[in-house]
Give the backbone structure.
Amino acid sequence: MIYQFIKDHSSEYCVERMCHVLEVSTSRYYEWKNQGPGVREEENRQLLKAILEVHNDPKTESYGSPRMTIELKSRGYSCSESRIANLMKKNEIQAKRKRKFKVTTDSKHKEPISPNLLDQDFTAEAPKRKWVSDLTYIWTLQGWLYLTIILDLFDRRVVGWALSERMHTSVTTIAALDNAIRRERPEPGLIFHSDRGAQYADKRFRKVLKSHKMIQSMSGKGNCYDNAVAESFFRTLKSELVYKMVFGTRKAARLQIFEFIESTYNRFRRHSYLGYLSPWNYLMKFKSKERKHAA
């Protein structure tokens, strides 16, 4: 785009001066110019083909130009975000947008409320320091399923989750927490944050937290931003999977949700907060640095 601008205005301004002001190499500009339009057009055709491949993949169809550029570079293409954005705009390729949805929380209970220890600080210096959790509803033709997830704030992985046909604490929050503990084996002192829902305030759930020496934290009353990371995951899940499908059975929903969480989201989906790495790759990068430091 910069080279094309220079070429378009070369009759009005000095090429060398424009290159200097726009901070590009004069020699690279002339190299680009001497390629001729045929080479550039062929490059754009190849890039457009790759863009369409990424866009037509259910795992990556929500990518806008920033994620699209990172994805293409990871596949060996040399391209700038402005070039990709221009190609997508010209060919009317748009990221599939997220639909709004309502998260329902039953906070009308008389159980005690824990203080908000996060205070919207969604950063963590290492894994297994801060977890956030939430619960949502998913419709199937056989009736509702209730999904409880637990995310690690360090790498945004789903470290524990549970699907149930009832809202009972034992099969929602406790089941998800047991799943996360078995997988991650956290040290004492982990902060566990959630909303004020009845399943998180339940004495049985608090007992599990206490037995593993976790510290409970809860959002402020009616403040959706206090648990924004968990709610953001549900927006992603619903826009990239749930809203596209009609689940005929609960079993079909379970299989699709399992694949989305364990494969698409945790392993492959690029996350802007993580520098467009997937949660798994971000964790592996951290562990690699740890090993080098220990050596």
